[in-house]
Structures are given as C-alpha cells and as structure tokens.
C-alpha cells in the first residue's frame, strides 16, 4: 500500500489535514518536521541558525527516503521538501497531494510566526511562493484548491477522491 504525502507552502495545513486524514482512515501519520526535531533534539529555527539550511535540507531528504521504505503511512512534509530534484522524483512515485492556497491567505496565516525560519518579509515570501508553486504542481499526483474548505471537508473530499474507505 502506497504512502500518502502532503506538500504545499508553509501555512497551507499539511500537518492538520494529514493528521486528520490519517485518523479518519486509521493509518499512521508521520510529520517529517517533527521527526527532524526529535532527531536533532532542537526546534527547526535553531537547526537553521546553528547548522544551516543546507544541513536541514539534507536531513529532510534522508528522512523522506526512509519513509519510502514504509507502507501505508500518511506523511506531512515541510514546505521546502520540493526544493531538491531527488525529493520531487520520490514524491512523484507515491500518492502526493498538493494543498494549494492563494498566497494572501497563506501570508495571513504565517505573518509574524517566529517558528518559521524562512519568514522574513512579504516580498521575500511572495517570491519564494512563486518559485515553489511550479515545483509543487510538478511533484503532486493531486492538486487540491483549498480555499473555502476546512480541514475536515478536505479530509472527506480526499477520502472520496482517493477511495480510501
């Protein structure tokens, strides 16, 4: 049984929807960011500060590779997982759901969130969003327009579309 991966820009609800879906279909949920925090024994902003983004991305890729050896899991990823071609290739081989929100809504959700090391300014985030968007689209097997939905309505939609029950 394939894993189900969630991708999308920061603030799009990957963790919330993935955990809700996993409970709904009685599968184990894995959050890659939480796994990284456990492995490193420090929060992600500290990893970025002390070891750098390159180190973080290498660790993220290694853990993504480890999830590929598992079966039937629901996995929420970090927003930058699609930055590496190897990660995009891996995600393309699985069921990969892109939670697609308009930038303004995402910005409203993440503005001022100090736990996100890449949040610097509106302009910087908008440029990052625009750079990542085509990578999300190229990496997913299902792109879901989320505006107007709740995590629960998205979960119900995904259960139906993916025929998970």
Automatic annotation (TrEMBL):
Cofactor or coenzyme needed: Mg(2+)
Cited SUPFAM superfamilies: P-loop containing nucleoside triphosphate hydrolases
Stored InterPro entries: P-loop_NTPase, Shikimate/glucono_kinase, Shikimate_kinase/TSH1, Shikimate_kinase_CS
EC number: 2.7.1.71
Metabolic or biological pathway: Metabolic intermediate biosynthesis; chorismate biosynthesis; chorismate from D-erythrose 4-phosphate and phosphoenolpyruvate: step 5/7
One annotated Gene Ontology cellular component of this protein: cytosol
Catalytic activity of the protein: shikimate + ATP = 3-phosphoshikimate + ADP + H(+)
Cofactor info, note text: Binds 1 Mg(2+) ion per subunit.
Keywords, in A-Z order: Amino-acid biosynthesis, Aromatic amino acid biosynthesis, ATP-binding, Cytoplasm, Kinase, Magnesium, Metal-binding, Nucleotide-binding, Transferase
Main location: cytoplasm
Protein's UniProt keywords contain Glycoprotein: no
UniProt: Mg(2+) binding residues: 15
Gene Ontology biological-process annotations: amino acid biosynthetic process; aromatic amino acid family biosynthetic process; chorismate biosynthetic process
Gene3D superfamilies with a match to the protein in the record: P-loop containing nucleotide triphosphate hydrolases
A GO molecular function held by the record: ATP binding
Residues annotated to bind substrate: 33, 57, 79, 132
Family (UniProt): Belongs to the shikimate kinase family.
Self-association state and partner proteins as the record states: Monomer.
HAMAP family from the UniProt entry: Shikimate_kinase
Function of the molecule: Catalyzes the specific phosphorylation of the 3-hydroxyl group of shikimic acid using ATP as a cosubstrate.
Full protein name: Shikimate kinase
Natural source organism: Holtiella tumoricola
Lineage of the species this protein comes from: Bacteria, Bacillati, Bacillota, Clostridia, Lachnospirales
Gene transcribed to yield this protein: aroK
């Amino acid at each position: 049984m394939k894993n189900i991966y969630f991708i999308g820009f920061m603030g799009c609800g990957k963790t919330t929807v993935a955990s809700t879906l996993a409970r709904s279909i009685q599968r184990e949920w894995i959050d890659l960011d939480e796994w990284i925090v456990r492995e490193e024994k420090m929060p992600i902003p500290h990893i970025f500060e002390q070891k750098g983004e390159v180190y973080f991305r290498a660790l993220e890729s290694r853990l993504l590779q480890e999830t590929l050896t598992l079966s039937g899991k629901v996995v929420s990823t970090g927003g930058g997982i699609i930055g590496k071609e190897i990660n995009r290739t891996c995600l393309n081989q699985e069921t990969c759901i892109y939670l697609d929100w308009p930038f303004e809504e995402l910005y409203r959700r993440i503005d001022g969130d100090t736990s996100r090391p890449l949040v610097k300014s509106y302009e910087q985030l908008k440029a990052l969003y625009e750079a990542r968007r085509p990578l999300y689209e190229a990496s997913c097997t299902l792109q879901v327009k989320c505006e107007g939905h709740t995590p629960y309505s998205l979960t119900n939609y995904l259960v139906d579309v993916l025929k998970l029950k």
